[in-house]
Amino acid sequence: MLKMNNISKVYQTEMVQTHALRDFNLNVEEGEFIAVTGPSGSGKTTFLNIAGMLEPFSSGEYLLDGIDVGKLNDNQRADLRNQKIGFIFQGFNLIPDLNLYENVEVPLRYRGIKAAERKRRIEQCLEQVGLASRAKHLPQQLSGGQQQRVAIARALAGEPRFLLADEPTGNLDSLMARQVMELLEQINRDGATIVMVTHDAELARRAPRNIQVVDGQLADFTLYQGKPNVAVGA
Amino acid sequence: MLEIKPIINALLRSKVGAVLLLIQIAITTAIVSNAAFIINDRINYLNQPTGYEEENIFKFNVMTFGTGVDLIQQIELDEDRIRQLPGVVDAVQISAIPLSGGGSSTSFRLKPVPEKSKSVNASYFETDEHGLNTLGVNLIAGRNFTQEEVVINRDFTKYPNVALATKALMDELYPDGDGLGKTIYTGDKPLTIVGIIGMMKGPWMKLEERKDKSVIIPMLDPSKLHQFLVRTESGRRAEVMTQIEDLMHESYDKRVIQDLTGLDKKKADYVAEDLLMMRMLVILISVLVLVTALGIFGLTLFNINKRTKQIGTRRALGARKSAIIKYFVVENSLICIAGLVLGVCGAVFLGQQLMAHYSVPALSYWYVAVTAVAVFAMSLLAVIGPAKRAANIAPSIATRTI
Ligand SMILES: Nc1ncnc2c1ncn2[C@@H]1O[C@H](COP(=O)(O)OP(=O)(O)OP(=O)(O)O)[C@@H](O)[C@H]1O
Ligand SMILES: [Mg+2]
């Protein structure tokens, strides 16, 4: 479902060129749950941003569901993000002036879904993350774990096939982190493909597949359909 | 695709920036519409038709200190000498100078005092049969008075019995338009109106009720200080003016010539204060509009910078650039409309206060409407740049900032 061939990403600043990703190759199959680990600054977020079409890449090829992302224009990428990808951020990124209901509604409005259908989906997703009763609350009235669950509800509302999470538990204590992890596992069992960046080794171990990004390149610890996907080994 | 409801909800939850902008828009609308109205009122006032060729007319005062001169005889002599100057159309001794701010007025009635009757206040000029031609105003009905009808006031025993009056005065006294030939009264003295003058401003341009209402009375009643009015051929006024002092002194030198001034200059002095006020208002309006435009621009920019991460998140969630632009334009328009509603009420209120306390005419609501539309257009212009900037915020901001 996701296929990256020789992706590289160079950040050009005045003084330095940063090779955030170098000849990055990855294959993600439908229904996988992948934990991405690696040292700070190794390129995990860069990888996730490119996977989620939040940034362009410098060279290589990226196919999402068979679509060549490099050939899309800005509007097409926005639409594709909206339809296929759900984002979960470390900082939750809820919109502070919108209540939970309206927050979950945001991606649905961008897709132009009718009000009745929006309502059905929002209620269902808030139910799923256990916050249906607080739909009228504002984000700052919730704990971090609850906010992250709202963010997950928002990511789920559009029924994306692909969830990208950048350290979703990074701002949470271990109990809340485990709850969020359980929620993600449930979502994965329901059929969504998940790629999750984490610094938490324990959480990473719970994921069926672990990959490591080191210095902009991929080190895969799992054998992938019999073929090792290894560039830099453990 | 983008609905107003969540924008309103979000605005209601964080009001400060929006309220500041709203107040600024309201104040601007209230002040600018009233100021624009007053400016236009002033422009109309400054440009009102006077009936005179102001640039071809001048006046001067004669202050006689010598005794043993027959003033009236001397005046007739002076008039003759001035009229013979090349370039002069006509010249006359006259009791008041139009557009100068100084003159006399009295009540003109349909019946003599003490009978009850309609009475209208009007300015009056005392001059001889050359007055009409020197002023250069148009007689639209009847005739000028004759030399024989001019009363030369040596002993105060006689008062003229004919006069000319402006149409504005006659329309008020005789709404049916049949005033020519009728007799009106000042006090108990009858004056038969033999001619009606079209447009002719009196000494005052301001007082709405008498600025166009004047009477010309055929009388010569000079004092030691009297004034002359001279009309020249087009373009020859300056040349004539330079000769006046010598000409006057040649025939009698125990007197001084003062205030030798063009009628246009007289008028400019008279309206100088109004012109100044108008210029101040224009500056005020310009500054206000500039400040508002900057305010809208700045607040929108501030609102956007404050929400950089949110915008990135929205983009990550699938917002197209156009949706971001629309968001800010709609948000700004909502604030603007609320501000305009408040501003329109403020404008009407301010207009009423100005009318009540500063004798400003009633505010025309056209000015409010046009100002509101202009402020709205300006706020749209101010928001479009920042909104475009917002749309260009990279979606990766969503993951790159905590
Ligand atoms: N916008 C940018 N401009 C320049 N360099 C950048 C930019 N974003 C990231 N980098 C650089 O790219 C490299 C990879 O960054 P990235 O954020 O992907 O690392 P990461 O693995 O997510 O690190 P962390 O675990 O600390 O989040 C780093 O060296 C970083 O400094
Ligand atoms: Mg990172």
TrEMBL record, chain A:
Residues 2-234 form the ABC transporter domain. One of its GO terms (cellular component) is transmembrane transporter complex. It comes from the Bacteria. GO terms for molecular function: ATP binding; ATP hydrolysis activity; transmembrane transporter activity. InterPro entries: AAA+_ATPase, ABC_transporter-like_ATP-bd, ABC_transporter-like_CS, ABC_transpr_LolD-like, MacB-like_ATP-bd, P-loop_NTPase. Keywords: ATP-binding, Nucleotide-binding, Transport. This is ABC transporter ATP-binding protein. It comes from Pseudoalteromonas piratica. The lineage of its organism: Bacteria, Pseudomonadati, Pseudomonadota, Gammaproteobacteria, Alteromonadales.
